[in-house]
Amino acid sequence: AKNDNFEISEKIKQIKKSEEQIKRNIKQIATLENGLNVYSFQYKSEPTIYVGFLAHDLAQNSKFKHYVIHMGEGHYAIHYEKLGFQTITLKTWQQSGVNALKNSKSIASQK
Predict the structure, then answer these.
(1) Neighbours of 78 (CB within 10 A)
(2) Are 107 and 101 in contact (CB under 8 A)?
(3) Strand, helix or coil at 73?
(4) Is-above-0.85 flag for pTM?
């Protein structure tokens, strides 16, 4: 079991590193009732500020880790649609709050 924990923590580090390579100005702005932390961030390639989740947060939670996808070449992503959410802009978050994060097409977000 000790080896399993080591492998899990190494994977979390890899996921966090992959996020830090593509995102900047990452700030936690809320925590949802289900325990997910909500963050604002920018992709390094653009000025827009987005609101969403971080893959390494989900990967550490047994309830959400299966929503983290390995994209290859050390990059990870979140399957937002299956999770029942969508990434939104900070402006939309400020106007509509947590409901704007929920993907209306998803069954999971309606539970």
Answers:
(1) 21
(2) no
(3) coil
(4) no
SS3 of the chain: CHHHHHHHHHHHHHHHHHHHHHEEEEEEEEECCCCCEEEEEEECCCCCEEEECCHHHHHCCCCCHHHEEEEECCEEEECHHHHCECCEEHHHHHHHCHHHHECCCCCHHHC
> For residue 81, what are its two tokens?
């649609």
Residues 46-101 pLDDT 10s = 999 999 999 989 998 999 999 999 888 878 889 999 999 999 999 999 999 989 99
CA distance 95 to 105: 20
Residue 30 CB partners (closer than 8 Å, separation 6+): 37, 38, 98
- Report residue 57 as tokens: 């947060």
Q: Contact at 8 Å (CB) between 50 and 42?
A: yes
The token duo for 39 is 């963050």
* Total residues found in the chain within this entry: 111
Mean pLDDT of 24-46: 94
